Amino acid sequence: MSLKHLVGLLSAAAISVALAGHASAEDKIVKIGAVFPLSGNAASAGVHAKAALEVAMDIINNAHPELGNFPLAKNAGLAGLGGAKVELVFADNQGSPATGQNQTLRLITEEKVVALTGAYQSGITLTASAIAEKYGIPFLNAESVASNLTERGFKWFFRTTPIATDFAKVYYEFLTDAKAAGAKTDTIALVHDNTEYGTSVANTITTIFKEKGLPVTLDVAYASNATDVQSQVLQLKEKKPDVVVMISYTSDAILFAKTMQAQDYKPAMLLADDAGYSDPSFIKAVGKISQGAFNRSSWSVGPPGSATAIIAEMYKKKSGDEMDDTAARQMQGFFVLMEAIDRAGSTDPAKIQAALKATDLKPDQLMIGYRGVKFDDKGQNMLASGIIIQLQDGENYVSVFPRDGAAKAPVMPYKGW
Amino acid sequence: MSFVLVQVIVGGLLLGAVYALFSSGLTLVWGMMNVVNFAHGDFVMLGMYVAYVVYTLFGGGPLLGVPLATLLLATFGIVVYFALIRDIMKGPMLAQILGTFGLALLLRYSVFWWFGANFLSLPANLVGGTLDIFGIRIEAARLLAGVVALLVTFGLHLLLTRTALGSKMLAVAEDQTAAQLMGIRPDSMQAVAWAIAAGATGLAGALIATFFYIVPTVGETLGIVAFVTVSLGGFGSVPGALVAGLLIGVIESLSGYLIGAIYKDIVVYTLFLGFLWFRPQGLMGKS
Known about the structure:
The complex is a heterodimer of chains A (417) and B (287). Chain A has 417 residues and is an alpha/beta fold. Chain A has helices spanning 3-26, 43-61, 97-109, 122-135, 164-180, 196-211, 230-239, 250-262, 280-286, 307-319, 325-344, 349-357; strands spanning 29-36, 85-92, 115-118, 139-141, 157-159, 188-193, 216-222, 243-247, 269-272, 293-297, 387-391, 398-401. Chain A has twelve helices and twelve strands. In chain A, the strands form two sheets. Chain A has a seven-stranded mixed sheet with strand order 7-6-8-9-10-11-12, with helices on both faces. A five-stranded parallel sheet of chain A has the order 2-1-3-4-5, with helices on both faces. In chain A, helix 2 (43-61) packs parallel to helix 11 and helix 11 crosses helix 12 (349-357). Chain B has one domain (3-278): ABC transporter involved in vitamin B12 uptake, BtuC (Orthogonal Bundle), CATH 1.10.3470. Chain B has helices at 3-33, 40-58, 62-88, 93-115, 140-162, 164-174, 176-181, 186-208, 218-233, 238-258, 264-278, and strands spanning 130-133, 136-139. In chain B, strands 1-2 form a two-stranded antiparallel sheet.
């Protein structure tokens, strides 16, 4: 090759590099993969998650001065990346761990996403995050509570939500408080499905309650997506536990509520572990016959005009439903991920990982009631926390515990219908 | 016998009646046309949404919803027969499976698109709450479904065995060419069979909607039980489906209560496979 050719080639290469560099600074896109159950039996949860993330994307990509100092809201795009816009690529896990895994692989290898979020069901988060780990792509989980997810020694997995161990402690404190107020809490029944979520939360609650001297006396396990739950309800009706803890996804939760009414069974106290009981379609379908159900949450709407109230309003406009705890936790998780990318000033996965590790958000920078966001070595948010809420009127949950800062006092016994 | 056990068995019978009601359309299509309709569960799902729309638009209960769902689904059945089934019947078995499965997904996701993914529910007292008979609690809605299941089974059985129309349909099922030589038009007979079967699923859906949740994927949840019911009862046998449905309901209910809900499917399917081992044609199927 002659010198002339070489110079020609080199200058051509230089020009193309310059052009490419220019183009990427001009309209840079940060692609984030989102794996959720958009079809199948948990589609209702997935569709709400999608709406929540789309609202968050709108807040990041467009200027929202009305949200005050809320991170990423004020200017359009990510300031740390020269105003780059966020693009969410949604993938459907169809409620199956295998599909969740395949879709994650597709998002990483074909869509070239720089980070991932999802996947609602703990059992699917388990498989999807394993793929992200293998490819070295940060995976932020905002809503799966099975404790073992952060016990796998993963380097690329970060979780913002409080987990089963956190909630088991809150439940214990709540039950102790209720006992002091005169409620009976001597016998406790756990009703749970056989998914990763159901079994792991049931195990965690059993262990922690036992340590604290409050043994679980009845364990009612069932296969999820049941066609009938009469035998389970009759079992409860016969054994008469003082407290019934429900760990169920929406379809089963609705069936339990209907069957309890049909069998005229009301436990003295019904404490639900989020999931189905937080799904807006649960409240619409059977809220009126589940009055007095306790539930856990990290979300509260806040006074009118506050950033949280405005975000809740935006979410309602988008989805047609009130903001619930699950959607709020998903949105918060996505903001945490984007704040790290913005701070990293890069879409390099390793730099995003480093920024996530350095995350230190204060309560006033959050839209949810955590004490902050700061990850431990396992990737679990150490400052995640939650409260107990109650469906007193059958339409809206109100905060009832811890008592300081609670909107209402807890009402007992369980009213039902 | 303990008191709770009576309640468990009564509940099992009522559940079984629902399984039978759910399955009658499936067994009919198989018996009449040798077609396994994988979209069956989704036909029932459509019936449930008809009942839901009737309630939200007109505030009407099953008195209006059930006839309307039956009629609409029967019409839809005829459309599906001429648009899809007639052609895929000529193909191999695989074409039937894939064709009806494709139809199932089309129906499921059309409803998903139109109504959204939310779980819907009809008010519990739409069919008069719950009866309390000496402490045994029976949901009126399930009782109604159970009674209708019996009537539908009886009616379809009479139709097939005692009427000229039934004989013609059976003749077509037996030997198309011979039936044609006798002046029976196979095409119209099969369209009628398809309409009756689809009508039965619409009826089942509208009744089940009064006590079950309504969601686009509900056909999937209930669909597996329908296939088990039909094969246990004997493919093509309407009374068989009734007996099988009741049997499965009671076994499921009893094992769920006595052994534990997590094991009930294992019990049901073990017994089911064991039974088929001895009698592969099912309870009342032709060998």
